[in-house]
């Protein structure tokens, strides 16, 4: 029912917009749409109690229509349906300038034959998300989101400016009708990426969007060195099945060397044996996740016993470090909706499986990360095998060289 209502609203909006506006622009009544990425290969459901409608590949962009009860209603290309919210992660877009003689079309799918949803304007700045396509990227501009050829963008030279009195409204598109997404007080330092018809696209630590160019002044502060590219790549390393009295401390030492933060999905019975090791992990600033008490495949247990596995682990974690786990990962990635309903924290899987537990080969662990790493990846490793500790230094060195920042799972999934 809700979907029917949503579609009707969309049609009505589109119809009205079409009548009023010469160009494609949605009325400025809703928040800017939300783009997320699948963190694993995900099944799209019409109705979660029935067979999936289709499989969405890992690392695909979806438009989130709304979220409810652990499920997200999404649009993927020409399909609409539900997928579990925990299979979606946010990704930080690059802000790039459109540099093209023609106004590039935004398409429904990454195919040149695909229907067009509208077009972008030359010299405007849009949010650009890299996708696994040789020709296309995924783009958002206001309420328009879809696939665009990747050869129409250029990176801009940034200039420092400061907000004039009294304050300035930040909008999602260049124009007074753009959706208001925030307000910056006077004297806020901003980075201007482009000017477009009297509107400046700005970035600050907190916000990005269009403001009236006339509300900005040249910053009196001494010129700062050029900012690193707008893109910041993040990756979450995760270590399962510990804590281990010998391997975990080695891993902590290597993470410290690179100032890297990671997430440890610990097993309750090991925490009980080595509470001090877990304490050291938490004190070093890493995130602690619950990975059940005995590493049981939860889908083979009664719901009551599954809950017991989760709760007893929370209890020993709290006893050791003074607070609960902030994320959960089911052993073997095995879970269902009723198990997820028992959780008070996000259910987190992974996108890169190093298979370190299987091959015990540091070279292969490194190769698995090297081959698959991208912005937003969640890497699965185990801090109970010496060979994993042996691989870690070279993994961190390789990723650092590629510009990755090492964050916890929670930092990765929230903006
Ligand atoms: Ni495990």
Provide tags for this entry.
single chain; binds nickel (II) ion; 415 residues; 28 strands; globular; seven-stranded parallel sheet; alpha+beta; 26% helix; five-stranded antiparallel sheet
The major β-sheet equals: 7 strands, parallel
Helix percent reads 25-40%
Strand residue percentage: 25-35%
User: How far is the N terminus from the C terminus?
Assistant: 31 Å
Which spans of ≥5 residues are poorly predicted at pLDDT below 50? 4-30, 226-230
Rg, Å, rounded: 23 Å
Ligand identities? nickel (II) ion
Mean pLDDT reading: 86
Shape: globular
Specify the structural class.
alpha+beta
Tally of DSSP β-strands:
28
Quickly count the helices: 10
